[in-house]
């Protein structure tokens, strides 16, 4: 039977689910943890710190330029206009020095290998002819030649190395006064090799670390160290809890395996009992089948007699049905005639109703058309009336404003006339008084003159 429970193999449990269950709160507090590790300041305020970062950025930029010099030399036709004559000449000289330097480095090992192999071959051939004395003298001569060659090569390498350093400084100085060339060369950074990109990435990472350390105060460093220590302690405690839970899990799995084995034993016992019951049930089924066959034969004999009686009853009922059908056929014909007559009358009434409703519908449509036309005329008249009413209101308002304006002008004219009359009256009285004063003064002066003459 396939329903026997096989003991389950112990799965290999990793710490990832348990750590996820233990570290649920830490994931929820992850932004707070990152905020603790980040410095409070976002910008460098000290001049020394800014200078350090500027030096690192300048070093990264110069390193990128120096790494792209071979590419620039290969594509000098494209960069010759941007670089200029002097910078172009310096780059070509620098690349030539670099090739010389690489050429001196490459054959250094191969020359030593060739010397040692030649010395060994000559030593072997001479040993067969002249003996061990000649062998030792030849080996010493070759070692002296190799040492002299290595010293000369080392001196050449030192000289070329100094020239390369001087050429590098000149190239960087010329790049510093030509920003356009710097931009054009740095735009080709996609051709850098993996090692060069790794070096520049390391320098960039160093700059970021320096910026982070410069932004952080001593108090923040202390708090960060304390926070990291607390995280470490918490992780250690979580590891202990995980070990304990894994031990409990192993015990639970052992208990489960024992329970499975017990259930398998119980299932085997039940299968044995089932096999015994199946044997007993087969014998019982055979006996039951024999009894059922006997009862079937007896029921068959009884059913044949019942079948004859029922057939006689069916024949009698058929005869009764034929008699009743003959009796009710006449009444059915009368009812059918009545039904046809009623249906004819109903159809006539329906046709009359349809004709009447058609006339009424036509009349309704005519009335509705007249109503629609009159309603459209009414709307048109109402629109005209609204327009005329607005114009009438506007004209009446203009007339009212004109009347008020005219009345105002008349009042102002009347007031102006009255004011002019008053002013003229005052002016006449003033002129009269002035003339009277002048006459009075003239008479006084004439009398005084006459008295003087006398």
From TrEMBL:
- The UniProt entry's coiled-coil ranges are 364-419
Q: Which domain of life is it from?
A: Eukaryota
Sequence ranges of Basic and acidic residues compositional bias: 284-307
Q: Where is this region: Disordered?
A: 1-30, 106-145, 284-313
Compartments annotated for it: namely: Cytoplasm, Cytoskeleton, Flagellum axoneme
Q: Name one Pfam family in it.
A: IQ
Q: CDD domains in the record, alphabetically?
A: IQCD
Keyword Cell membrane set for record: no
Which segments show compositional bias classed as Low complexity? 113-136
Which controlled-vocabulary keywords does the entry list?
Cell projection, Cilium, Coiled coil, Cytoplasm, Cytoskeleton, Flagellum
The family database entries (InterPro entries) matched by this protein are listed as: DRC10 (IPR042815), IQ_motif_EF-hand-BS (IPR000048)
Q: Which family does it belong to?
A: Belongs to the DRC10 family.
Q: Which PANTHER family match?
A: DYNEIN REGULATORY COMPLEX PROTEIN 10 (PTHR31598:SF1), IQ DOMAIN-CONTAINING PROTEIN D (PTHR31598)
Physiological role: Component of the nexin-dynein regulatory complex (N-DRC), a key regulator of ciliary/flagellar motility which maintains the alignment and integrity of the distal axoneme and regulates microtubule sliding in motile axonemes.
Under the subunit heading, UniProt states: Component of the nexin-dynein regulatory complex (N-DRC). Interacts with CFAP52.
Protein name stated in the entry: Dynein regulatory complex protein 10
Biological source species:
Branchiostoma belcheri
Q: Which gene encodes it?
A: LOC109465736
């Amino acid at each position: 039977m396939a329903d026997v429970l096989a003991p389950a193999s112990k799965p290999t449990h990793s710490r990832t689910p348990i750590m996820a269950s233990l570290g649920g709160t830490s994931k929820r507090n992850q932004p707070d943890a990152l905020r603790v590790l980040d410095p409070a300041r976002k910008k460098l305020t000290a001049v020394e710190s800014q200078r350090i970062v500027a030096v690192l950025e300048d070093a990264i930029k110069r390193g990128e330029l120096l790494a792209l010099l071979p590419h620039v030399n290969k594509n000098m036709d494209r960069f010759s206009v941007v670089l200029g004559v002097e910078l172009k000449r310096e780059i070509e000289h620098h690349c030539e020095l670099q090739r010389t330097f690489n050429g001196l480095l490459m054959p250094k090992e191969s020359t030593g290998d060739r010397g040692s192999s030649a010395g060994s071959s000559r030593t072997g051939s001479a040993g067969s002819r002249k003996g061990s004395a000649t062998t030792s003298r030849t080996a010493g001569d070759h070692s002296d030649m190799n040492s002299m060659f290595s010293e000369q090569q080392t001196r050449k390498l030192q000289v070329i190395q100094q020239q390369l350093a001087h050429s590098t400084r000149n190239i960087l100085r010329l790049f510093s006064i030509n920003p356009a060339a710097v931009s054009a060369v740095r735009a080709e950074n996609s051709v850098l090799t993996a090692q060069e990109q790794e070096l520049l990435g390391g320098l960039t990472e160093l700059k970021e670390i320096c910026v982070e350390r410069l932004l952080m105060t001593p108090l923040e460093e202390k708090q960060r160290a304390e926070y990291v220590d607390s995280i470490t302690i918490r992780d250690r405690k979580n590891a202990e809890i995980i070990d304990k839970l894994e031990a409990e899990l192993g015990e639970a799995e052992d208990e489960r395996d024992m329970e499975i084995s017990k259930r398998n034993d119980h299932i085997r016992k039940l299968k044995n009992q089932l096999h015994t019951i199946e044997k007993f049930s087969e014998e019982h089924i055979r006996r039951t089948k024999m009894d059922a066959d006997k009862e079937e034969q007896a029921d068959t004999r009884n059913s044949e007699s019942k079948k004859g009686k029922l057939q006689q009853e069916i024949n009698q009922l058929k005869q009764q049905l034929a008699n009743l059908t003959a009796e009710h056929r006449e009444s059915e014909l009368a009812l059918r005639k009545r039904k046809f007559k009623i249906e004819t009358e109903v159809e006539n009434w329906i046709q009359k109703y349809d004709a009447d409703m058609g006339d009424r519908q036509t009349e309704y449509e005519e009335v509705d058309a007249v109503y629609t036309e009159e309603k459209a005329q009414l709307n048109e008249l109402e629109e005209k009336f609204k327009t005329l009413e607005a114009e009438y209101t506007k004209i009446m308002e203009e007339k009212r404003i004109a009347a008020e304006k005219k009345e105002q002008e008349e009042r102002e004219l009347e007031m102006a006339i009255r004011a002019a009359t008053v002013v003229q009256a005052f002016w006449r009285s003033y002129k009269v008084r002035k003339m009277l004063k002048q006459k009075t003064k003239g008479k006084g002066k004439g009398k005084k003159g006459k008295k003087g003459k006398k």
